[in-house]
Design brief:
CATH topology of chain B: Thiol Ester Dehydrase, Chain A
Number of helices of chain B: 3
Number of strands of chain A: 6
CATH topology of chain A: Thiol Ester Dehydrase, Chain A
CATH superfamily of chain B: Hotdog Thioesterase
CATH class of chain A: Alpha Beta
Radius of gyration of chain B: 16 Å
Strand order of the largest sheet of chain B: 1-3-4-5-2
Strand content of chain B: 35-45%
Structural class of chain A: mainly beta
Number of helices of chain A: 3
Helix content of chain B: 10-25%
CATH architecture of chain A: Roll
Largest sheet of chain B: 5 strands, antiparallel
Oligomer: heterodimer
Number of domains of chain A: 1
Number of domains of chain B: 1
Largest interface: A-B, 32 and 34 residues
CATH class of chain B: Alpha Beta
Order of helices and strands of chain B: EHHHEEEE
Structural class of chain B: alpha+beta
Largest sheet of chain A: 6 strands, antiparallel
C-alpha cells in the first residue's frame, strides 16, 4: 500500500501567519506552567546580566506558537485525524517579550510506516519562525501521525 | 552526577543529567493546557473526552513533555556560556498525569571542532518504560 498525495504539496509554503505578538506575561505564564525557575527566563534584573542581556523565553516556548490558534488548517490529513508524534526543533535565536513572530510553513515530507498497531502515515510540516526584523528564531519540524 | 555544567572542557561522554523525578498532577496538566490555549482538545483536560479518543485517560501535551525535557538541559546549562540549539523528540507512549515521571539525560558525543555536545534525553514512567525519547544539542561559545 502506498499513500496517495499531490506531490506538488511538498516544499510549497501553504501558510504564512499573521504576526503573533509575544508579551512578558505570556512568557511568565509559560514558565509557571512548566515549573521554570532559571533566572534568565524569570527574573528581569538577573537576566540583564545574563548571556542575552535581558529576559528571554525558554527555548521550548517556540513550539507553543500554534497552541489555540487555527494554524495548519490546510495540512493534508489521512485517516482519522492526526496525533503529535514528535518534533525536531532548531533553536536559532531566543524569543523575547515584544517580538512579533510569524510562522511560515510547508510540508517537508509524507511517508508511511508499519508498526505494531498497523500502518501509519506521517506528515512532517516545517515551520520557520521569524521576528519583526525578519531574523530567524527557530525551525520546527512537526511530525504528525495519522492512522 | 553534575547538576550544572561549568565548561565544555569538563564534559565527558557518559556524564548524566538528572535524573529529575516529577509528579505531574491532573491539575498541573490542565493548567498547562489551559494556559497554552490547548484546553479545547479534551484529551489534555478531561479523562472522559480522552477515552472517547481511544486513550487510557487524560494525557500530557507533547509540547509539555518537550518543555520538560528541554528544561532538564537548560537547568544543566544554568547560566554558563552555552545554548540549547536543537531538541528532537519522539512521543512513543502517551504520558499520563497523576503519575511519577523521571527525566534522564546522557552525554553521547562531544565535538571539540564546533564545541557542541549531544545528549540523549528521555522520560520514563514508574515501570521504567520510555514514554518520550529525544536528543539535544548544546553549543558552547568560545
Amino acid at each position: 500500500m502506498s499513500v496517495n498525495y499531490d506531490p506538488e504539496l511538498i516544499n510549497k509554503v501553504f501558510e504564512v501567519t499573521e504576526p503573533v505578538e509575544i508579551n512578558a506575561e505570556e512568557i511568565e505564564r509559560y514558565c509557571a506552567a512548566l515549573g521554570e525557575t532559571n533566572p534568565i527566563y524569570t527574573d528581569a534584573a538577573a537576566a540583564k546580566k545574563g548571556p542575552y542581556g535581558g529576559l528571554v523565553a525558554p527555548p521550548s516556548f517556540a513550539v507553543t506558537m500554534r497552541n489555540g490558534r487555527n494554524f495548519f488548517q490546510s495540512v493534508p490529513r489521512f485517516g482519522r485525524g492526526g496525533f503529535d508524534a514528535g518534533k525536531d526543533v532548531e533553536f536559532v535565536a531566543p524569543i523575547r517579550a515584544g517580538d512579533r513572530v510569524t510562522l511560515s510553513s510547508h510540508v517537508k515530507e509524507i511517508y508511511e510506516k508499519t508498526g505494531r498497531s498497523g500502518t501509519m502515515v506521517f506528515v512532517v510540516i516545517r515551520s520557520t519562525l521569524k521576528n519583526q526584523n525578519d531574523e530567524v528564531l527557530a525551525h520546527i519540524d512537526h511530525r504528525f501521525m495519522n492512522r | 552526577m553534575p547538576n550544572h555544567v561549568n565548561s565544555f572542557e569538563d564534559i565527558k561522554i557518559g556524564d548524566t543529567l538528572g535524573p529529575l523525578e516529577l509528579f505531574v498532577s491532573k491539575d498541573q496538566c490542565r493548567a498547562y493546557a489551559n494556559t497554552m490555549g490547548m484546553g479545547g482538545a479534551g484529551r489534555f483536560t478531561d479523562d472522559e473526552a480522552a477515552r472517547k479518543e481511544g486513550l487510557p485517560g487524560m494525557i500530557i501535551p507533547g509540547n509539555m513533555s518537550l518543555g520538560l525535557l528541554s528544561k532538564l538541559v537548560t537547568d544543566w546549562i544554568g547560566s554558563s556560556n552555552a545554548r540549547l540549539t536543537r531538541m528532537s523528540t519522539t512521543y512513543r507512549v502517551p504520558v499520563q498525569p497523576d503519575h511519577t515521571i523521571t527525566i534522564h539525560g546522557f552525554i553521547t558525543n562531544k565535538n571539540p571542532a564546533d564545541r557542541t555536545t549531544e545528549i540523549d534525553v528521555w522520560m520514563e514512567n514508574e515501570e521504567a518504560e520510555r514514554l518520550v525519547t529525544g536528543t539535544a544539542t548544546v553549543a558552547f561559545r568560545k
